Amino acid sequence: METKDRLKIPRQKMPEQTPEQRIHNFREVPLGYTPELAQKEATRCLQCKKPTCIDGCPVEVDIPGFLKLIEQGEFVAAAKKLKETNSLPAVCGRVCPQEEQCEKTCILSKKFTPCAIGNLERFAADYEREKGDVEIPEILKSTGKKVAVVGSGPAGLTVAGDLIKMGHEVTVFELLHKAGGVLVYGIPEFRLPKVIVEAEVDYLVKMGVKVKTSWPVGTIQTVDELFQEGYHAVFLGTGAGLPNFMGIPGENLNGIYSANEYLTRSNLMKAYSFPEADTPISSGKNVAVLGGGNTAMDSVRTALRLGAENAMIVYRRSSAEMPAREGEIHHAQEEGIQFHFLTTPIRFLGNSDGWVTEMECLKMKLGEPDKSGRRRPIPIEGSNFKMKVDTVMVAIGNSSHPLVPQTTPGLELNKWGNIIADPETGQTSRKGVFAGGDIVTGGATVILAAGAGKKAARAIHAYLKTL
User: Fold this and answer.
1) pLDDT class of 445 with cuts at 50, 70, 90
2) DSSP states along 306-371
């Protein structure tokens, strides 16, 4: 097809549940492309001689290659092309911010809407899984080298998937009782169905990766003991699972959660289906979520589905500074989420039984940009007001999990407690110890963690060849 004809094709919208439907269930909101829609969207790709979209992909997917295969109707081949560099395509197609990465660097984005790379990645991965055509890639001859991967989030799973293909023996150690890290405890079912994560983990297991769950490294075994046991290298991908709080009066009242606890109860423990599931969860009527990122959006949309009459985002900056994905904000707005911008809590008030009943807030104004590049919020004196709440989630960011760093002598950390590692190799201050993902960068995106895992896997492979 001629380029001029490709340019005439509009971007294909993915079908999704209506807001009226989805606020009453935890099923996935977008329904996925049909084969016809996928082929039509893939036809929009110009097959550039110098594909800048690849430059925007942290895991170096051959984007024009897999799009061409979809255009030709070779859907399983497209999935295999994706898996040459990305171990988690069904996950990344759903939760990665393509609008800030590959789609942002797509040539079409200069004058037109970019190719829907994320939607097509999801389509190809889903098609392969649903048709039962998943094949195990070539595994190189065993090197006799053993690698321990601590943490089964996107960084750890990527390291494991890449190293197993290189012929190394890989064991993943996971603190929780299910593998997947933030993919299983942090992201709701309506954004990332857990059967998708399980299928991606099963794929790695079929390749030969061993997974040990309910295995907190730092308690059962230290990093040094893993080396003593015969592992030749260790990758630390333990994430940023330590929630931050505001440190204001009343924060210990009942009904106030970290977003981590709230989402873990709902996602990992299936509390949304209580009493069928064993874990209960608060289903308040006036629910406030503090923060403006994806975790805040996940929390407030979960609360809405659990029966909140007023599900509110309380954010100290304006809508322009919100770090959440545009698509998630759009879905929240469609669902009736209330947004209170330029507002910050200063204390919580409770009843005689110790349950939160009100939140005293201040209005804010924006000053000059701070180190984040966003305009700094400044309190407006005398603007105090109170808001009725019976459930509050604090979603203002997370810190790195301290267990492994505290039990690994000689591992250098920065002032925030993150592991210091070379951004290109993941090498830490300890020989044979590599790290990547949120434990290094602080809370970031799934795809950036996977990209760090890919770089670390290459460096670990090179290191193992020297032994």
Assistant:
1) confident
2) TT-SEEEEE-SS-GGG--S-HHHHHHHHHTT-EEE-SEEEEEEEE-TTSBEEEEEEEEEEEEEE-T
